[in-house]
Design goal:
alpha/beta; Rossmann fold; eight-stranded mixed β-sheet
Length: 185
């Protein structure tokens, strides 16, 4: 099987998903845009039309999130818009972050998670402050704590907070280790 991680290429969780994935021959596509400075060697620059399409999905998911987006800068608008492509291309999303409630994740990661829910993706969040994995339950419309490390799908989004802590880093390392049975290539 060939695995591909769809990322935003940000520092923190995105970068760790990318560098750890390389050890197992996981390809990364790091979505970016003109003027976005990322260190990923797998940068994929989106066009202005693609970013506009992504923004349409932000507007849709904001009906659920109800966040104030009226005064955001064009740069932040592009950051949020590129999240759509991570969601669109993935079968499932694995995020490192902080639960705001039992159905919402804080920060920019929350946008991708909400779009993933809107599009019926499998969603897993490692809550780094609680050191636990959660899965989104569509039956209960909330995140449920799970006692296992989730199974990666071939096309996934490995995303999350820039402020990753040791628990979050270890969760990514373990996610790959368990899914690839320690078979570092």
């Amino acid at each position: 099987m060939k695995y591909c991680n769809y990322s935003g290429g940000a520092s923190g969780s995105d970068s760790i998903f990318e560098t750890e994935g390389e050890k197992y021959s996981v390809k990364t596509v790091a979505y970016s845009f003109f003027g976005h400075n990322i260190k990923s060697k797998n940068k994929w620059v989106l066009t202005q039309q693609q970013l506009s399409d992504g923004w349409e999905h932000i507007l849709i998911t904001n009906k659920t999130l109800k966040r104030n987006i009226s005064n955001i800068s064009p740069y932040v608008k592009n950051l949020l818009s590129r999240n759509w492509f991570q969601v669109r291309e993935s079968d499932s999303i694995y995020a490192i972050g902080t639960l705001k409630s039992d159905h919402e994740i804080l920060g920019g990661t929350g946008w991708a998670i909400s779009m993933g829910i809107d599009n019926n993706k499998h969603i897993y969040v490692f809550e780094q402050n609680m050191n636990s994995w959660y899965e989104y339950s569509y039956d209960e419309n909330k995140f449920i704590k799970i006692s296992y490390i989730p199974k990666l799908t071939e096309n996934f989004a490995g995303i999350g907070t820039r402020e990753i802590n040791e628990n979050g880093k270890n969760a990514i390392i373990e996610l790959y280790r368990v899914n690839f049975n320690d078979n570092i290539i």
